[in-house]
From TrEMBL:
PROSITE patterns listed in its UniProt record: BAH, ZF_PHD_1, ZF_PHD_2
Protein name (Swiss-Prot/TrEMBL): Uncharacterized protein
Domain (PHD-type) ranges: 136-187
Signal peptide: none
Keywords linked to the UniProt accession: Metal-binding, Zinc, Zinc-finger
InterPro entries with a match to the protein in the record: BAH_dom, BAH_sf, Zinc_finger_PHD-type_CS, Znf_FYVE_PHD, Znf_PHD, Znf_PHD-finger, Znf_RING/FYVE/PHD
Keyword Zinc-finger: yes
GO terms of molecular function: chromatin binding; zinc ion binding
Pfam families, sorted: BAH, PHD
High-level lineage: Eukaryota, Viridiplantae, Streptophyta, Embryophyta, Tracheophyta
Keyword Zinc: yes
All residue ranges annotated as the BAH domain in the record: 19-134
Length: 218
């Protein structure tokens, strides 16, 4: 019996470059279709087989459009889901390195580079379910936060609002120093009691249902 000689490597130098990727890095992998953006994955294992043939084990990140539910309005343009889908690939398909930030860190970035992404959900590829299965919602429209959209925070209740949902222009919002939402704003000198919010979170799958309901109401 011939025992195949496999060597576990800590890092791999991307072909034609001096860039090195390590286990644990987030990497971009060439899509089969050259018109498509590269796939994003987390590098789990690097293995060198016979004839210097390097294979990598990866855990895929899914783009919202690749998920069963598809892209929703609250998904950011750089949003990814960490999936439970693993694969083995030739290391030659690795194009480069990227950074997948936590949602919190992503919202704090001064500028978003080409290779900056964020992830706030894990995704089960077989069932299309998300974890966490609840997501905080904001504004009158009760939507999860899309970091691509500008929002304004109420100084009293600390909820966040879309300028368009308040019928305010972006220009007006940017000039504001303090903002009080309609529920918190003192009206005729009298402070209205704030409505109790009945829903502070929704499941990611529920959000579309919620959006549809809103749409019909209008
Ligand atoms: Zn809104
Ligand atoms: Zn408020």
């Amino acid at each position: 019996m011939v025992k195949s000689k496999k060597k576990i490597l800590d890092s791999y130098t991307i072909k034609g470059t001096k860039k090195t990727v390590k286990v644990g890095d987030c990497i971009l992998m060439r899509a089969h279709d050259p018109d498509k953006p590269p796939y994003v994955a987390r590098l789990e294992k690097i293995e060198e087989g016979s004839r210097n043939n390097v294979r990598v084990r990866v855990r895929w990140y899914y783009r919202p459009e690749d998920s069963i539910g598809g892209r929703r309005q609250f998904h950011g343009s750089k949003e990814l889901f960490l999936s439970d889908h693993y694969d083995e690939q030739s290391a030659e398909t690795i194009e480069g390195k990227c950074t997948v930030h936590t949602f919190r860190n992503y919202t704090k970035l001064d500028s978003v580079g080409n290779d900056d992404y964020f992830c706030r959900f894990e995704y089960k590829a077989a069932t299309g379910s998300f974890s966490p299965d609840r997501v905080a919602v904001y504004c009158k429209c009760e939507m999860p936060y899309n970091p691509d959209d500008l929002m304004v925070q109420c100084d009293a209740c600390k909820d966040w609002f879309h300028p368009e949902c308040l019928k305010m222009s972006l220009k007006a919002v940017k000039k504001l120093e303090n903002y009080f939402c309609p529920d918190c704003a003192p009206e005729n000198g009298e402070k209205r009691s704030r409505k109790t919010r009945t829903r502070d979170s929704l499941s990611p799958e529920d959000v579309e249902v919620q959006m549809d309901r809103k749409r019909h109401k209008q």
